[in-house]
Design goal:
The chain is of the alpha+beta class and 383 residues long. 36% of the residues lie in helices and 22% in strands.
Length: 383
């Protein structure tokens, strides 16, 4: 399983060959009800099988394409370790699955490209953010959305200040900690309290934070995702000096994070990141309102589809859970609408979102009532 980063999403967007299967299922994370996960998924695989046959694949071809997904049904441990949602993508010779920290609706679709709109909130709105909890004893990286949180494995990264530099960090000063196997100065104390030794300690901590920051950025993947620090306030300034992560926000969670559960940290972090998520969306909505009726913004489906394919869309709002079936002919630049799914048809709202992202635009996947003019989609044009 790969981490679902923006790069992964872009790779999925660009893939288009034969029948592409997209499966989405809400998951139960813990307890006896996790057994429902496999049952729900088995029904999705059956629906995908029927859709593939409707697209003209033989039973043998269907079985081969869906085999990687079908093999998961009896994998009991797999279903006991899930997040809020599960997304699976299959094509000829291709199989990917992602545990996603957002709620998704049950869905099985077969189109000429993967259906990705349910994942777009991870790039905007109530998307994904992270909390890095730093203490003397351990470092923890939490992945969260508005409604969920989970701790990520830091792999080979140092997991504590003590392990990395051998210094004890307190609220108002640094003390050298002898006897740690990773101490930089052997068995001789450098300094207790204030003075030049404190500068040495800060330099060592900064080196550790620089290493940790690079590892965290690699784990996160999407460098625009907000990152909140939790720890004694003394450490915040040092980490910000060492960090090159653009999503690091100014506000932090002060205090010893060892006393806080992931749920506690999530509860304290959300008010800090919510303005980051909503500010750009509100600004974009205001801009749409100012440009509506001028030819620089539109909620007309056929017009927006063509503009997205041409790379003209600067900002696009799409309604989650809303689909409009049809096809787009890039040569004839013509949109054909349909009243149902089927061979040659795809969700044109999803198509517009993918085209916008691939051509450098922004997409806000929001609840239908939050799309300007409450249309299936709405766009602000570059020109």
């Amino acid at each position: 399983m790969k981490q679902l980063s923006r790069g992964e999403l872009e790779a999925l967007m660009e893939r288009r060959e034969g029948a592409c299967v997209s499966l989405y299922a809400p998951m139960v994370k813990a307890g006896p009800e996790t057994q429902q996960n496999a049952i729900r998924f088995k029904n999705l695989v059956r629906k995908a099988s029927e859709a593939l046959e409707a697209h003209g694949l033989t039973p043998k071809q269907v079985e081969a394409l869906l085999r990687p997904a079908a093999d998961l049904i009896d994998d009991t441990p797999f279903w006991q370790h899930q997040s809020e949602g599960l997304a699976i993508f299959l094509a000829d010779g291709f199989f990917r699955y992602y545990r996603v920290p957002v709620e998704v609706r049950e869905l099985a679709l077969v189109e000429e490209r993967f259906h990705l709109k349910p994942l777009l909130p991870l790039l905007s709105g109530d998307g994904r953010f992270y909390v890095l909890a730093l203490s003397q004893k351990r470092a923890r990286l939490l992945e969260a959305t508005r409604h969920s949180v989970r701790e990520l494995d830091l792999g080979d990264l140092p997991t504590s200040l003590d392990e990395a530099v051998g210094y004890e960090v307190e609220e108002t000063h640094i003390q050298y900690h002898t006897g740690t196997k990773t101490s930089r100065a052997g068995d001789s104390p450098v300094y207790h309290g204030q003075g030049g030794g404190e500068d040495d300690a800060k330099a060592e901590i900064r080196k550790f934070f620089s290493l940790l920051d690079r590892g965290v950025a690699e784990l996160i993947g999407d460098r625009s995702a907000p990152l909140v620090l939790a720890g004694v306030e003394f450490l915040f300034a040092i980490y910000r000096q060492a960090s090159s992560y653009p999503g690091l926000i100014e506000a932090g969670i002060p205090g010893n994070p060892d006393d806080l559960t992931p749920e506690d940290l999530h509860r304290k972090a959300w008010p800090l990141v919510e303005p980051v998520f909503t500010r750009s969306q509100e600004t974009a909505a205001d801009r749409y309102g100012a440009l509506a009726g001028t030819g620089q913004a539109s909620s007309q489906l056929e017009e927006v589809i063509t503009a997205a394919a041409d790379g003209r869309v600067e900002t696009l709002f799409v309604a989650l859970g809303t689909r409009r079936w049809g096809s787009f002919d890039p040569d004839g630049r013509k949109v054909e609408l349909a009243d149902h799914d089927g061979p040659g048809h795809e969700d044109l709202v999803d198509f517009a979102a993918i085209q916008t992202l691939l051509k450098g635009g922004r997409v806000f996947a929001v609840q239908p009532e939050n799309v300007p003019e409450q249309a299936p989609l709405a766009a602000v044009y570059r020109y």
